[in-house]
Amino acid sequence: MIRLILNVLWLVFGSGIIFAIGYAIAGLICFLLVVTIPFGVAAFRLANYSLWPFGRTLVTDAGAGVPSGLANVLWVVLIGWWLALAHIVTAVLQFITIIGIPFGIANLKLVPVAFWPLGRRVVPIS
User: Fold this and answer.
1) What is the domain range of residue 100?
2) pTM
3) pLDDT tens figures, 66-100
4) Do residues 125 and 56 touch, judged by C-beta distance below 8 A?
């Protein structure tokens, strides 16, 4: 029940809806450019996870190999560090208030996946 409440508050007061819309738009652009479809898949995974982060986590996919790692390097150089920085800045701003602390923690959970998204999958926390 607490996770549901935190997720709803995250959508309304946190930065969940804003980041999800941004990731979804980036995913659509990546799908239009055909060559960047793997990045589009990663962007949609980030959009999904940023909508509902409480009660879920990201794990490394065992099937991810060298192509995924090389694509991640390209992702980091082009946009990964910008996305990670945006999550860090948003988290710091949310840590200013007591109510924003859980949302800041959720933003910090999104930093590693925003920086290195390919080869990961979202799983529920048991």
Assistant:
1) 2-124
2) 0.82
3) 888 888 898 888 888 888 999 999 999 999 989 88
4) yes
